[in-house]
Design a protein that fits this description.
mainly alpha; two-stranded antiparallel sheet
Length: 126
Amino acid sequence: MNPEQLRQTVRSKWLTYYQENRPWIVRLAIWSTYRGQRRPSSSFILGVLSALEPRLVDALPVIVELSNDPDRIISALGLNFNPDEELAKSDNPPLLTPEPRLLPPKPFVSNRAEEHAEDALERSQP
């Protein structure tokens, strides 16, 4: 496995994933700053990439033996950058995605036993 090729692959997959999921990622409380770069937390990025890139999953045990610091791993993979700034520099500008739709509020479900008790009470009174 060529380390530079892995870096390019994970960079591309991370930016694509971030671009497609940006509306909800920016709202998460996962943002941190490492060496002057604001980006999602290393653990979040590693979690996403472990699902997207099987070669990284194969390499992570060896990488973690060398360093168990997630920030250093992200730096070594060439991912210590603000994804919004990187997307703005690329040939593919960020997708214009609508604001995420929120789930509708949970419908009100009354306590049927209380309703029946009130109905019975009203019927029993003259």
